[in-house]
Amino acid sequence: MLQRIVPLLVFAACAADDPATGVSAAALTCFHTSTQVLCASGAPTTLADGRTRVEDFYPSACFDGDADADGTPDFLDLDFLGSAAASAPPPIDAARCPICNRGPGTQNDFRLQIFDTAAELDRGKVYAQAGAQLTIPTPQGVLEVVTTAATQFDDGMPAPGAEIRVEGTIVNHQVEATRLKVLCPAPAALPPKNVPPGATPPQPDPSTPIL
Ligand SMILES: [Ca+2]
Known about the structure:
It contains three helices and eleven strands, in the order αββαβαββββββββ. With 211 residues, the chain is mainly β. The strands form two sheets. Strands 4, 5, 6, 7, 8, 9, 10 and 11 form an eight-stranded mixed β-sheet that branches. The radius of gyration is 19 Å and the shape is globular. The N and C termini lie far apart (59 Å). Calcium ion binds next to loops.
């Protein structure tokens, strides 16, 4: 019996974080600004600002994995859902990018229903924001959502990194939101000066508009 237990203990010790520091291996370090989410590759210690700097700004700055090594962090990656890596619990790291568990489905679970010109996005993640326009990645491309003076906002305002629910009408290849609910708010926006020069926005694949 002991022989069966020992290998498990060894595995657990390898997979767990260093209890002395709470640090786990991170493929990417991500930064939330008022217009987009940007990520830098590599271990946190290779960043000019260092891990302590990231922890100071958490969750606006956070560490994350990249299970399929496509440059998009797990917390934003639609491909990550359903993968073998997704079924394993993520490493425990105090500065790991937050996971959104509110609303229908699970994080990264993109859900869009279209009936004629009516659109209902049950769950989507805001990648980028330009004024009233929000860019949401989907498995087939990107969805553009635009808010207006008539949009009813529930539970806060959307921003890059937020998980949202939208009801609206398709107008000019965009979903004009009549109602927008924030399932999980975005972290506070970092000033651009706090983002390392090497950080770049994850590129949705494909990146073509779906409407
Ligand atoms: Ca990825």
